[in-house]
Amino acid sequence: MNELENDRRAIHQQVGLSGEAPDRSISITRRTFLHRSLVLGGASAAACGLFPLMNTLDLAYAAEAGGETFKFAWISDTHLYPKELNSRFVEKTIRAIKEVQALDPPADFLIFGGDLAQLADPVELALGAELLNELKIKKVFIPGEHDWYLDLGANWNKRFGASPWFFDHKGVRFIGLDTVSKAVDFWTARKYTPAERMGHMATLDGTLGGAWAAVGDKDLKWLDSTLRSWDKAKPVVIFSHNPLYEYYPPWNFWVRDWREVNEIVKPYSNVTNIHGHCHQVLYNEVGKMRSIGMLATSWPWPYAPEGVPKLTKPMVRADPGDHFDAQGWAKLTWNKDKLDNEYMMWRGKDGFFAEAAVDSGTGDNRNQVLSPRIVDRL
Amino acid sequence: MKNYRYALTAIAAALLVAASTSTWAHKEKHTAEQLQAFEDVFLEQVKLGDALFHGDPAAVKQMGVTLSETGMACAMCHPFAADIHPHEFPKFQEHMNEFATLRDMINWCIEKPSQGEKISSDSQAMKALEAYIYWSNRNSKLDPGRH
Ligand SMILES: [Fe+2]
Ligand SMILES: [Fe+2]
To answer: What is the ipTM of this complex?
Structure first.
C-alpha cells in the first residue's frame, strides 16, 4: 500500500462520521494531498481549511464494473428571471449551453440540476425551456425549490417530467431525486398567496420554509427498491438538488433525512451524489457515499458560516465586479474505470482553488460570527 | 414584514424627554422604559435594513431607493450578511483600489453587481443597511484593516 493510501485512511479515520468510507477500490487519484502531520492533528487542520481536493476528481472503481468511456454534463441554478428584468442570467445560461453543445466528442446527456427559474413563474420556466431547446443532446431534469413553490410543481412536471427517475447507461445506474417538494405547509394557515409562498421559499436565509429539503418517506422506499435491482459493486450516481448530507441546515444545504439515505446506500460500494443548490465548490464523503457540489451559472453563494466539509478545498473568493466569476458548469467523464469531475468555472484555469486562507471563501471568515435575520423571525 | 413605522422614533424621543426633568441627557438615571426605547429605535433601523437588504418592495419604495436593477437583493449573495465583513472596515478595498469604509463598499455593491443607484452615505437607507449588517455581525470581533 502506498503512502497516499495511508493518508487517505488516516483522513477517513479522522473525519469519517461512522468510521465507514467509500470502497477501498475507489481512490482519488489526482489531487493535492494533506501532509500527514496535519491529518494527525485533525482539529487544527480543519481550522486551517487545508483539506485536499482537486480541480479534477478521478474516482476509480473496480474495472470489471463498467468500462466504457463517456461524458455527461451538469448545468444548474440558472435562476432565470423574465428576460427584460435580468439579461445577465440569460447570457450566462446561454454561455453554459453553448459550451456543453461544443463538447467534442459530445456529452451523452445533460443533467439539469434544478433552480432553472427564480420564482417558478411560467414565463421564466418557458424561457428556460426555450434556451435549453438549443442543446441537441438527451436532457434529464430534477427540480429546485425555485422551480416549485408557485404552483407546487405543476408547471415544472408538465414541462420537464416528474422525479424521481432512473436509467442505466453504459454500466452506471443514474438516479434523479426530487429533494425540494416536501416542505411542511406553512402557507395555508397564514393564507399566503402562491406568490408569497414562493417568495419565502426563494429566500435562502428566510425562516418560514424551515427544513424543507428532504427525500421523503415515499421516495426513500423508491430509492431502496430501485437500488435493490442493481449489483452492489456497480457504480451508482445519484443526482439531487440539495446535498445528501448535513452541511448547513439553516440554508437547506442538506436533506433532513440524510441519515436514512445513508442507510439505504450503505450496501453499495460505489455511490456518487452530485448536487446543486449551494452554488459553490464542495466535496464530502459520508459513509460509503461521496458528494460533489456543482457551480451555479447565476451567482456564487458564500460558504456557510459553519459546517463546510473538511474534505472540501474551497474555491477562491468571488469577484463581485465580474458577473461570470466563480460560476460555470461541470463536465463529468467516465473514463474506463474512473469518474472525472471537471469544474468548468468561468475563471482562469489555475485560479479557482484557494491555497491560502486569505484567498478562500471560508478562510477569510476569521473573527466573524453571523446571526440569522430578524424580520421574518416568528 | 411591511410595517416600519417612523412613529417609533418619535415615541422614543418623547419618552426620553418625558423621563428627564431637563432636555440634557445623562443628568438623571436612566429608566427601564428609556433604555427599552433606545433599543427600539435601534431595532427599528435593523428591521428596516433587513427588509432593504432582502429587497422588500415596500421598504424599498418607502425609502425611495433603487438598490438593484437586476431583480437581485443583497441577501441573495449575502445570506445572513455572509461575505460582508463589517468588522474589518475601514480597510484598503481592492475592488475600489482605495481606502474605504463600509458605506463606500455598500455603495459599490449597489452600483456593480446590483446595477442600482448609489445612495447618499448619510441617507436613512444607508444607516438602516449599516444597522442590519452590524447587528447581524454583533458577535464578530473587530479586526479593522484586515483584507
Ligand atoms: Fe440555486
Ligand atoms: Fe436551490
So the answer is: 0.86
